[in-house]
Amino acid sequence: MADAREITIPVQLDAGTFRRFACFDTLIRKKRGIRPVVFAVILIAFAIAALLSGKPQSGLIAGVLLAVGCGLPLVYFGMFLGQVNRQAAQQKLEKGKTVYTVTLRGDGFTVVNNRKAGETITVPWQDADSAYRKKGCIYLYAGPQRAFLLPSGQADAPDEEVWQAVARGLGEEKCRPAGTRK
């Protein structure tokens, strides 16, 4: 990517983009949504088995199993979304806020924190983890636990050029375009 020009993205993050990223990162990328769903399926299956047994009070047992099987996952997802909303409110993202500026270069990318003067990190492409292209945003992971969001339309280049710069830098094997599962 040495022959490519620098691309600068002054990232203005809003609450909706932050929520979509948090759901993607936690529930899909880290697969933390699987256990509550499996739990619900197992308890629902036991509830159906209890109903089919035809024994006395099987309806009561089935009702309790259904309530717990559906209730606990709903509470889990509700608490997760509540926590994400609180984080967005703490960061004051409801109306959008410029949080950092990412510069993509041939040897890596630099992130300047717009909230804390002097806080800058530089990540060589070979040290970066991965990138995901989702509708309206690119999630650029500097490491397994640290991502930078690059919302569409905020760079000094077209969105496709931004994605191509990330793909050239990281390599195609570390990039996942929208709609793919790896």
Give the gist of this structure:
The protein has two domains: 104 residues, PH-domain like, CATH 2.30.29; 60 residues. Helices cover 44% and strands 25% of the residues. The protein has four helices and eight strands.
Task: Describe the protein's architecture and organization.
- This protein is α+β, with helices and mostly antiparallel strands and 182 residues long.
- The chain folds into two domains: 7-26 and 93-176, Roll (PH-domain like); 31-90.
- Helices cover 44% and strands 25% of the residues.
- The protein contains four helices and eight strands; from the N terminus they run βαααββββββαβ.
- The chain has a four-stranded antiparallel sheet with strand order 1-2-3-4.
- A hairpin with a 3-residue loop joins strand 2 (97-104) and strand 3.
- The longest helix is centred in the middle third of the chain and has 33 residues, at 58-90.
- The chain starts with 6 loop residues before the first strand and ends in a 6-residue tail after the last strand.
Provide the fold topology.
Layout: E1 7-13, H1 15-29, H2 34-53, H3 58-90, E2 97-104, E3 108-113, E4 120-124, E5 130-134, E6 137-143, E7 146-151, H4 159-170, E8 175-176
Parallel strand pairs: 5-8
Antiparallel strand pairs: 1-2, 2-3, 3-4, 5-6, 6-7
Helix pairs in contact: 1-3, 2-3
